[in-house]
Please model this.
Amino acid sequence: MLVFYDYATGSFDDSPTDRYIFYDGAHYPGNATMVSLTGDQTLNGVAFGNDYTFQTNVLNNALFMQTGSLTVHATYTGAEPVSSIGSKKIYVYLYDSLNDSTPTSGGTRDPLPIYTGLTDSAVSVGNPSDITIDNILPGDYYIVVFYDYRSGSNPDNQTDPYIIYNNIEFPYEGASPLTISTGTELSGISFDYSKTLSSGGAFN
Model:
């Protein structure tokens, strides 16, 4: 059973960036639990947020059977938070485009990320971490990596340190999309506290 929230407008009820979850919290059909229906039933506890988003229209595309994957090898080397502490996880956001607004001045938001990934737990400063995102539609994507320094309603919040592949910040001139196919690896992503967001949700 698939449940989704109609977040974005489109020609269909299910559109790119709509939030979704399978019953039992699964991300893909392969690890979802089937539900046996016998008469009237009530299913409780189906709660979900921004973690999983459609990258295309489900009715016309094989959403969950894409062949691309990306593993980002990232290291955060900056300071640890001492107040309003976030999860201290590293997040990876994939975009098909970036606009010319600045994440450090509260400008117009960028497009929503098409794919997201994060570490399973908080990371230790200076220790490399691997973040893998599976079932990506092969193609070119801009990549934003950030450290969840400060708590808030979004994973990306004010004062969260970030880096944009290939080691740039605003303005986005010079940002290069990465071509993602099967088993793509991105190494050498290291960042500190020198580049931080000025507003929550600048990348989300």
